[in-house]
Amino acid sequence: MSEDHELEGRNTPVFERGTDGPKVIVAGVDGSDSSWRAAAYAAGLARRQRSLLALVYVQPIAMAGTAGLGVPMAEATSQIAEEIVAQVREAADRLGDDFALRWEFHTFSGDPFSGLAQAADDLRADAVVVGASEQAGHRIVGSLAVRLVKAARWPVTVVP
User: Fold this and answer.
1) pLDDT tens readout for residues 51-79
2) Distance of alpha carbon 130 from alpha carbon 159, whole angstroms
3) Side-chain half-sphere of 44: how many Cα atoms within 13 Å?
4) How far apart are CA 106 and CA 4, in angstroms?
5) Domains (ranges, CATH) in the chain?
6) Angle of helix 112-122 relative to helix 144-151, nearest 10 degrees?
7) Strand order in the sheet with 156-159
8) Which residues, at least 6 apart from 88, have a Cβ–Cβ distance to it below 8 Å?
């Protein structure tokens, strides 16, 4: 028995995450060892799934109390972003065409949670991959990974 079901009033396709495998995988990178492990893991997923890997670096915003440090901090975080892109390009070149991988690099300003959440929403990510926090205080206050999981908007993988 076959029935045709038509959704009335829908003229435009609706975005649906993960229907045919992930299309976009977002990985947070900040230059730390755990973020590089997360990026490598996400790259493997993206390559196998033929997904786009979106590497995201969130540039911290200078705090009000450090007003005099705003320009130097912005320059430092821009330099970090440039170094991350250079390292990613170098790694992609080493892999060559045998391990073709589509990737993009994005920077956002703000705190890591807001930046990654905005990136994942803007890019319509099917998955978010982050490294485990290397800071002891995050075990008490809550890490970026925990905040992303609690947001419950995307599957989140935490790489140790």
Assistant:
1) 999 999 988 775 444 455 445 555 666 77
2) 6
3) 6
4) 42
5) 24-159 (3.40.50.620)
6) 40
7) 102-109, 52-59, 24-28, 127-131, 156-159
8) 29, 39, 55, 103, 105
